[in-house]
Amino acid sequence: LWGPAYLLTQEQSPYDTSSLNTNLPAAWFPMAIGFFSPLGWLSENSALQFWFIFNIIEICMIIYIAQGDKLSIYNTVILALLCLFFPPTLNHFSLGQISITVTLSLILAVHFANKERHWLAAFFIALAFSKPHLSILAGLGLSYHYYLRDRIRGLTLFWGRTILISLALCIPLFIAYPNWIPDAIRSMTQNPPWLYPSLFILFQRYFGIWGVVIWGASSIAAIWLSYFLWKKLPPANAMAWSLALAPVLSPYAGSWDFVLLLPLLISTYASIAMKRKIFIIVLYAIAWYGMALVQMQESSHNHFFWWVPLWFLGMSALVTNWKTNRSSGSIQPV
User: Fold this and answer.
1) How many other C-beta atoms lie within 10 A of the C-beta of residue 333?
2) How far is it, in rounded angstroms, from Cα 2 to Cα 10?
3) pLDDT tens digit string along 150-173?
């Protein structure tokens, strides 16, 4: 993120990063670049240090908010260890990614929607949609939430506010380099192919054109499941599940994007009894060991982590008491 922000402060195109000799072009939507454009005034090392500390603070906020009414010192300490040493989190830190910010933004969006702070909810949805492939299920879920509250009017106002704030976040780009849009389109459409740890890539690799069909069917199932969860669960719980389902739906997601699993891990762990807490920790440790084994392989590659979201989704579903819509205690945002 520092590269596009730096170019913007130099009145250059934030989407033409060739002068910085980066490995990949900037592929974020402009809202994040506009909002974090002040990073460009820092040196690269200072920006990296700031971003690391900022990510730590964001993780702490996610842990605090996602526990809801089950907040306790014991839960917080254990969850801090689980979240901070989660391999995708460590990978995220090393690469300076923005997925933790997206995760927190979506958690805050549903929090403020519940608090009737609709402009703040729209702001955080707009910021999260800097990575739309990770935010689409959450956006659909909040759309359903607003539709239930005030039907078409509520839905229209929600997306109207979101679009308006998205445009406002792009103002720094229009001021510093008005012709950024063609470069943005070129940057996003010319991103080189890569073996992402997604079901789309997995199915396509092993089943060819039929893999696309299988992925399409699994995506429809994920969307339907997300709708069902938003219909049955409190919004905070449904948001956690939608975030965890996003890597299953998204055709392009790196292992660092699996930080989207953290709110579900946090809310599930905080809400269950001690025996189930121990069971969750055991399953987490098995997954951690599995990820470590993959990483240590000489032929290791990011796409070998495709199973991680499915493991944590299954783990959470296993301990959830669906008859009461609780993981032995339904959480609400604080």
Assistant:
1) 22
2) 12
3) 889 989 999 999 999 999 999 999
Q: Residue 138 has which token pair?
A: 């959450």
The answer to whether the beta carbons of residues 120 and 228 sit under 8 Å apart is no
Residue 225 CB contacts under 8 Å (≥ 6 apart), including other chains: 241, 245
Q: Is 309 exposed, middle or buried (0-12, 13-18, 19+ CB in 10 A)?
A: buried
Q: Assess whether pLDDT exceeds 90 at residue 248.
A: no
Give Cβ neighbours of residue 223 (< 8 Å, ≥ 6 apart). 137, 140, 249
CA atoms of 245 and 57, how far apart (whole Å): 24
**Residue 297 is encoded by which pair of tokens?**
């392989």
Question: How confident is the model at residue 270, as a pLDDT?
Answer: 92
**CB-CB contact of 254 with 297 (8 Å):** no
Residues 6+ away with beta carbon under 8 Å from 83: 59, 62, 63, 89, 262, 265, 266
Contact between 137 and 226 under an 8 Å Cβ cutoff? The reply is yes
Q: What's the CA gap between 165 and 120, in Å, rounded?
A: 10
| Cβ-based neighbour number of residue 147 at 10 Å | 15
Check pLDDT > 50 for residue 208.
Answer: yes
| Length in residues, the chain | 334
Average of per-residue pLDDT across 314-325: 79
Q: Which amino acid is at 167?
A: L
Classify burial at 306, counting beta carbons within 10 Å of its beta carbon; exposed 0-12, middle 13-18, buried 19 or more: buried
